Amino acid sequence: MSRQYAHCSVDIAMAQEVAHCKGDQIVVLKVLAGEAHRAGVVFYLGNALVWLADSIPPRYLLQLDSASR
Asked: Which domain holds residue 14?
């Protein structure tokens, strides 16, 4: 993958739409952004629907199951 930043969609629907462009088997992660930010993770506004981060440690990521989406 050649992305410079982690791209974070503002809602699940947008994340799913983007993921389906890449393939049929998708995984949606919820970012505990408030906790990550308080711990020093810097987020940048990409646009109205996307936030960017240099990296997000796994402890701030939760995998959503299909029932949560």
From this structure: 6-68
Cα torsion 59, 4, 48, 24: sign: negative
Q: For 12-69, how does the pLDDT look when each residue is reduced to its tens digit (9 = 90+)?
A: 999 888 888 877 888 899 999 999 999 999 999 999 999 999 999 999 999 998 756 5
Q: How many domains does the chain have?
A: 1
pTM above 0.85, yes or no: no
- CA 60 to chain centroid, in Å, comes to 10
**Whose structure tokens read 């949606």?**
28
Distance CA 59, CA 19 (A): 22
Assigned domain for 55 exists = yes
